[in-house]
Amino acid sequence: MKIGFDIDDTLINLREYAFHLYNRKLQKKVPREEFLKLDRLEIHEPFGMDDQEGKQMWLDSREEIYYTDCPPFPGAVELLQELAEEGHEIYYITARPAEHGERTKDWMRKKGFPIRDSRFFYGMKDEEKIHTIKELDLDYYVDDKPKVLDTLSDIPARLFLKDQTYNRHIRHVSRITDWSEFREIIDDHLL
Ligand SMILES: [Mg+2]
After folding, report:
1. Residue 31's pLDDT is what?
2. Which residues place a Cβ less than 5 A from the ion ligand 1?
3. What is the pLDDT of residue 114?
């Protein structure tokens, strides 16, 4: 099967990693509970920043956020390795800007994700992902962003939402909280 994944906050815990990074950089101790209360993607509010300041903080920190030690979600690397070994085609479709594409690919490889160059897509705006997902004719696609899932409602791929505090209002898409659940979904499909 052809299985596609978004990267940030779907396969890797990027926002939470950035949240801890902000605490370190700003010498603050904003508790994790504040992170878990966020109902939007942006993480700057608990640090007292407005949207403009928050955007700048993200851009200034992006190097560290992207390329240091952001952890994959538990089981994600192992699951994708298994699926690749079983012969499934694993695709990555990320909105990370084009100038970060190749480095992101290398970083993901170092983390152990199974990657083929021809199955790694980057530099795609949320609304552009749909074209790639359609063209690839994916069987499954997993993302965390409500906006992306909204654009995909009429494609044949089975869609899954990686559970996050900011997407809990979405009811019409199946949800994955833990990656072991996705293993079960694929296994059920193959029965
Ligand atoms: Mg994402």
Report:
1. 98
2. 6, 8-10, 144
3. 98
